[in-house]
Automatic annotation (TrEMBL):
Protein name, entry field: PPM-type phosphatase domain-containing protein
SMART domains found in the cross-reference section: PP2C_SIG (SM00331), PP2Cc (SM00332)
Secretion signal, residue range per the UniProt entry: none
Compositional bias per record (Basic and acidic residues), positions renumbered to this chain: 86-99, 166-193
Residue ranges, compositional bias (Low complexity): 50-71, 107-116, 129-146, 194-203
Gene3D superfamilies, per database record: PPM-type phosphatase domain (3.60.40.10)
Cited PROSITE patterns: PPM_2
One protein family per Pfam: PP2C_2
Organism: Streptomyces longispororuber
Domain PPM-type phosphatase span(s) in chain numbering: 260-516
Length: 526
């Protein structure tokens, strides 16, 4: 019966074994299952212990050295030594960073090193791997050991292996299989050094990287701080990671001021987003007369994507107005055409692919209301569809304030038909149900336009129902407008938005203020 040969170390984890051990004390490896050592190859002497007495000692491997290379003195950082014939001395990571190369030397082990152990990277002793059989010469006439010297538990070179140097890192110039001239598996490949015979890796140093080819790392964007708790950072979803407060979006509060027109829009205190939008511009008529334009849109909350509808309508109407006024189109006709252009822009939002409509069959088309004003040297033009409004407030307050638009709403129809008084109609819960809007599912679009020639200076207030709900009558709106509104339109718009927020802010609030007559372009406001 075959008797298993006594093993000095565990074949699996290199743990030192004692005579008579049947299992490894470290990993539990069944030593009786260990393969029988090969008898047809002589073994190499390891740590001075003779191998098979009948076999002659193996000649040391003939490792090439670079011309002029000399052994470097120990720098005190610790070295790693393999325990095969033709030991390979590997410098630690500090030498690698300094550009030093691997040197292959035949040297004896330290006297204070116990047999079966190698010195690790940090100077501690580590267990060496089992001896490796000699390897026949490569086609180029060079030889080198390819055994699993220093192999760790995971199959990689461990504390005493060349590859990894104890932590799994590759050592320059030496690949798996301990053959620096072939590929990782000893068969040759792009990862191995494939230079001519007799030359070492040191003869072909890699060029230093060009610093110009390395792009500088972009500085990280500063983290946004919560506006509520002033302590937590804002996550990608727009909520504070500390208190969970939703952060303001870009459209939650918007302000803009041009030469003689200003506008402010706010989300309000009850809605989770701002579905209003505005567009203001300063233009000039064909004869050079200055003109100011303001468009205000209110998304219909019961529709799909109302915020997109209001934004598309305001941009389309403003662009159409500017182009028409420059061409010399009458402002009232230009306003009519601008509302039609806005309607087409909103209708385009409903042109979704067929699968999208089938996935959401009960969603209605995007929709919004629109109101606008054009102020020139002596003419005031307004246009609207829906229940957003335009108010006229004289600067001297000697004349009455006037509402210049009529709502497309259920309440307005009841009053116009004489079925209810204005107070009764607007007290009904159906009062704000609109009968006219922009959208693909709207009735036939009929823009309302009107032109006025005021005989005195004044202020034009263009707003959504988020404001006029708290100043419905013209007299109430005039009381809310600051006395210096003509000189400070942006401040006046801010005050009016604050008036709505103080009243409860139940809806989005948007207001534009245009002094009449229009100031020349570039004049600005006081």
């Amino acid at each position: 019966m075959h008797q298993p040969a006594a093993l000095s170390t565990c074949p699996s984890c290199e743990w030192p074994l004692e005579s008579g051990d049947l299992y490894c004390g470290a990993c539990g490896y069944d030593l009786s299952a260990a393969p029988e050592p090969p008898r047809d190859h002589p073994t190499l002497a390891v740590n001075g212990r003779p191998g098979d007495a009948a076999a002659p000692p193996a000649a040391p491997a003939d490792w090439p050295t670079a011309p002029g290379a000399a052994a470097e003195p120990d720098n005190g950082l610790g070295t790693v030594e393999t325990q095969d014939a033709g030991d390979v001395r590997v410098r630690d990571s500090a030498d690698e960073r300094n550009g030093q190369h691997v040197h292959h030397q035949n040297q004896s082990h330290s006297q204070n090193q116990r047999p079966g152990q190698g010195q690790g990277q940090d100077g501690r002793l580590g267990h060496a791997g089992p001896s490796s059989p000699s390897v026949p010469s490569s086609p180029s006439g060079q030889t080198g050991p390819t055994g699993p010297t220093g192999q760790g538990l995971d199959g990689r070179q461990g504390l005493d292996g060349v590859r990894g140097v104890g932590d799994g890192r590759d050592v320059p110039g030496v690949r798996d299989g301990l053959d620096s001239r072939d590929g990782r598996d000893g068969r040759g490949g792009r990862d191995g050094w494939d230079g001519p015979a007799g030359a070492g890796p040191d003869d072909y140093p890699l060029p230093a990287p060009d610093p110009r080819a390395t792009a500088p790392a972009a500085a990280p964007a500063p983290a946004k701080v919560c506006v509520a708790c002033r302590a937590g950072s804002v996550a990608a979803d727009g909520y504070c990671e500390n208190c969970g407060h939703a952060q303001p979006r870009e459209r939650d509060h918007m302000e803009q001021e041009l030469d003689a027109v200003a506008a402010v829009s706010d989300r309000g205190l009850r809605h989770h987003r701002n579905e209003d939008a505005f567009a203001i511009s300063s233009a000039a008529l064909a004869d050079g007369t200055p003109a100011a334009v303001a468009i205000v849109c209110d998304g219909v909350s019961s529709a799909t994507r109302p915020d997109e509808a209001s934004l598309a309508a305001s941009r389309a109407a403003s662009a159409s107005l500017e182009a028409a006024l420059v061409r010399g189109t009458h402002p009232q006709q230009a306003m009519h055409d601008a509302i039609l252009a806005a309607g087409e822009a909103v209708n385009a939002l409903a042109d979704e692919p067929v699968p999208a409509r089938e996935h959401h069959p009960h969603q209605n088309a995007p929709a919004c209301t629109l109101v606008g004003a054009v102020v020139t040297g002596g003419l005031l033009v307004v246009g609207w569809v829906g229940d957003s409004r335009v108010y006229w407030v004289p600067v001297d307050r000697t004349g009455p304030a006037v509402r210049l638009t009529e709502d497309d709403s259920w309440a307005a129809q009841m009053v116009a038909a004489g079925l209810m008084s204005e107070a009764e109609a607007y007290a009904d819960e159906r009062a704000h149900a609109i009968t006219g809007w922009l959208g693909a599912d709207a009735y036939e679009l009929e823009p309302h336009t009107a032109s006025f020639k005021p005989d005195r200076a004044g202020v034009v207030v263009v707003c959504t129902d988020g404001l006029w709900n708290y100043a419905e009558a013209a007299e109430e709106m005039a009381a809310a407008v600051p006395a210096d509104a003509a000189e400070r339109p942006l401040h006046s718009a801010q005050v009016l938005v604050g008036h709505a927020l103080d009243g409860g802010g139940h809806d989005n609030v948007t207001v534009a203020v245009l002094p009449f007559p229009a100031a020349p372009r570039g004049a600005g406001s006081a």
